[in-house]
Amino acid sequence: MNEFEKILSVENVGRSFKTKAGNFIALENINLDFFEEEFVAIVGPSGCGKSTLLKIINGMLKPSTGKTSFRGKALGGINLECSMVYQNFGLLPWLSVLENIELGLLSRELSNAQAQKKAAHYIDKVGLDGHEEAYPRELSGGMKQRVGFARALAIEPEILLMDEPFSSLDPLTAINLREEILDIWEDPNLRITTVIMITHQIEEAVEMADRVIVMDGSPGHVVKEVKIPLERPRNRKSKEFDHYVGEIFELIT
Amino acid sequence: MDHDSSSNKEIQSLPAAGISETLGLLEVIDDHGGEEKSYSLASELNIETDSLLTTIKAAEMFGFIDTPGRDVILTPIGKQMIETEMNTKKQLLLEQLRKIELFAKVKEALESQEEERLSRDDLLKMIQSWLPNEKAEDQFETLINWGRWDEFLGYSQDDDYVYLDQG
Amino acid sequence: MGPIWKNIQIKWYSIALILVALLAALSQTPEVDTFIVELDPLANSLASQIFYSFLRMLGAFVFALVFALTFGVLAATSTTRAKVILPVVDILQSVPLLGFFPTAIFWFMKLGSAKVGLEMAVVFLIFTSQAWNLVFAVYDGIKNIPESTKQAVESMALGPVAKFRRLYLPAAFPRIVDNAALSWANGWYFLMACEIIALGPLNYEVPGLGSVMFRAVENSDWLTFYKGLGALFAVIIAMDFFIWRPLGALASVYRFDFGAQDEENSSELSEDVLSFYRNHWICSPLHWLGQSVDWIFTKLEDSFDDKYSPEKTHTSKTWKWVDACISIVFWTGIASALVWSSLEIFEVLTTPHPMTAASLLLAIFYSSLRVLGAYVLCLSWILPLCFWLHRRQSYMRWAQSTAQILASIPATAFFPVIAVLSFRFFHTTELAVALMLVTGMQWYLLFNIIGGAQSIGSDLKDLGKALDLTRLQYFKNIFLPAIAPALVTGSITAVGGGWNALIIAEYIKIGDKLYKVFGIGAIISESTFESGDRNLVAYALFFMVFVIVTINKLFWQPLYSWAEKKFRMDD
Questions:
Q1: pTM for the complete prediction?
Q2: In this complex, do A107 and C166 lie within 8 Å of one another by their Cβ atoms?
Q3: Which value does ipTM take for this structure?
Q4: How far, in Å, CA of C166 to CA of C543, rounded?
Q5: How much of chain B, in percent, has pLDDT values that exceed 90?
């Protein structure tokens, strides 16, 4: 079904942690492929290793076994073509909106002027124009997450990773931001081609993703992948929508 | 519900709702074909009625919805808001914002200053005098929130002044 | 909850104890004898004394900051390192100032000319009273960075200098500010003891506020004494107003948990002072200072961080080497210090000594009784006061500000006075010792209990009214349980403060008059000041620190965990 190129693959990945009690196996035998121009959701009960998997995809964590490859090359460290958005936003409270976004550009070897220009461009894209000098504490959750998005987009990655990005927002703001993130993903002028999102809300996954990866824990593993071939914008009330939600729900329980 | 804010002699206080929430509300009403009953929205979205009513009031102030009785109906402008991209959204917000009495008064007050600036404390005092029954700090927060969104107002916490945004 | 020893990480604490015993063991008799730095006759005024003392305090504080930032960051970024660093610093906290005398004199005198060396020794001593809580502050600040923020910055692939400058340093900043005034208060507390270092036949003195005030009491020159006290008071208040409060206002933007704390502390006044520093042209030297620090950091970032390659964080050879080198240096240092101090300790403990272990234990016992007595005395006025205050919120804030000011006046300034007066009117020194101990303990208790009382929600207070409880019932059943965790924390620090005060309080020599009682503090002081008997000092110190730390681990910490679990208020 995918005529698009493979952009990232997770091969035979496992990850364990040494704790006081002994060896804890968080992930085992994960084999996943991700393609260009797709929106993937990962769902599963809490503690099943979704966040750990995302960090391994990011390159922040090294897998204990197996490897992650980006466009055919194995990752040796942090993947600069990925950026991540967090449930609790991850902003620095002593920096303004603009400064928070520029911080993400620090390691990209840009001059101050270039960095500011880029930051301003993406501030514009997510609608934060006018908020540049605001501090995080002056902002509502929805605005803070916009800053998170702008910061992630400013480094112009190919892959956008999201860890429960809408879970800390009120329902209406979440609805609004989901729309906007889909708009951003579909924008041909932006480099983002693939989005990988972790969520615990099945409806959210079915509403947004082309493909839903269902995981379970003890140890963390992939149960099944469910493709969602519905056209966007998707109607939460339609029979087909319900069907997919039901299918995924059964896989989890 | 009174929805002709431009000819109101009394200044309406601002509901404590954010723009993102308001946009979200518009999306939801649109999903329902452009109109819905407010109480069913509350139960469907699993939001407290209080909080929903605040958002409804905000959307109404901007002229994005009408509220005859218990219905909530999307206006043409509201429909436009959902369908356009970010920059047009902001333009529409700005146009509608200018019609809100409180913002007109703030603009007047700023323009009468030498550098078109006011300190937070001074502006708070003014707001309190215009709206004696409201908490000035809360109104200020919403004022700045909405004002920043459409680049109408700016506020620098470090330098402590509110200003008219020409950008 | 397994066997007690597993919980206490006894392994690490015993290692830490041995390491720290190194200090007591390093008390070789220096060759230079009595040395009093002569004052420049032109500068013989109270103002210049204060100036010198202030400079020393400032110098010590700068070193303490650098030390805290280094070791706090090292500990916060590696659990293995934390296992060593934290217990060591914890124990160093319990080592009384006198324990550092021999080290100070021996090492620093060797380093410079007599005069420079002595000043360095004094600064070092002040440093030891300021540094330890700052280390914990930095550690806490970094550890409390929210997970999402940590991850976000982690994935930005910043080099170590950049990470320090942009994440660790700002995150630690509010905690440092919270603790800075306390560090300075500690410094002032021990200033007199630091500026007059007496070690057996050796006597060193530097010109400064501490020495001036001490000599004044010695000569019954009360006018000078009060002038000095007034000057100290003025400096403390000025620092509070011009430095700590504006810094507190500045620090609020750095806190991750912007909460009630800031609304209490940042007043309009401190915001105004801060704004003055920011905007007024007279403060431009401050701005230049800030800009040069920025410049230094940027240069460091450019040269150092370039070698850090984010794509190779898993496999980079350079960084693996650097990491390995740091570890080798660190652990070799620890290991050799361990070996050396074990040998020293062995030598000390196996040398026969006139004072037996039994009498030392007895001395510790007497001293503990005094600490306990003072503790009860403190509680007897603090608990009723806090109970009375917590029902009258309006007085609470006023009381807090007053207490803060009073707490910053170092009680040690009064010790000689208390000793003299107590003896003159009551013919006993025990009373004086008790009073001195109380002054060293009460503020910790007071502030902690006030803090605990503040957190009693209004719903609990209303409950008391609804159930129609008598004052006594309310006190027993609601107030006490609610403040239990705070009471334990306050008690831990108070008892620590008591032991610190003990060393000075149990043995005070003014001119040729001696005020002393039988206790471990007196033994340590006496052997330090009179006989310079290094073995006894080492022996006594080791015992004392061992007892303090053991009680800490076996009693206070489990008590705290129990109190926290049982009485915690979940909101």
A1: 0.84
A2: no
A3: 0.90
A4: 44
A5: 53
